[in-house]
Amino acid sequence: MLSRLIYHSRVVGLCSADMLNDILASSERNNARDEVTGALLFNPEWFVQILEGRREILSKTLFRLFPDPRHAEVAIADVRPIEERMFSNWWMGAAAIEGLDARFLSAQGIDEQFDPRRLNGEAMLMMALAVSDTLTSRIDDEA
Ligand code: FAD
Predict the structure, then answer these.
(1) Which residue's CA is minimally distant from atom 8 of ligand 1?
(2) Hey, whose CA ends up nearest to atom 25 of ligand 1?
(3) Which of 5, 18, 38, 62 is the most core-located residue (most Cβ within 10 A)?
(4) In the chain, which stretches have pLDDT less than 50?
């Protein structure tokens, strides 16, 4: 069954371009093999990730990335069956949370002190869709 899983986690260490590019390189390799698509939003403190794929594959992916020392406090915000993918162009596309428009954030009730623990999965999906034009498979600057 095609499903979408949304989680957030806390960045451990410096959220550098090198770190993000390492994550994106593994994601691209593994997700292409597993037909997983999605988006990874980040800021210096938090990751928010949307993963789309077959439910059993999403479970395997989550178990693999759960113990990754580059993040902690992994918390699932939403998992549900879907009819179609929303990030079908991306094995994993990344975007900075800071790139989100301030008016969009306040309309979602998200203040400057971004904290995904206060958001539901729907708001996280809206965030990812709002930056879907700027998703990238490689980060150039220090995040
Ligand atoms: P490799 O990429 O070859 O890595 C080998 C091992 O080294 C792994 O155990 C890895 O965890 C560890 N490792 C590699 N680089 C570092 C580093 N710089 N610091 C510490 N440990 C390191 N993987 C996916 O497949 N799909 C995803 O969508 C995905 N999203 C992620 C999102 C986040 C927020 C994070 C933190 C990681 C994500 N990963 C994702 C990476 C995942 O946690 C595993 O590292 C990866 O799947 C392992 O791939 P691999 O078996 O090909 O091993």
Answers:
(1) 68
(2) 27
(3) 38
(4) 143
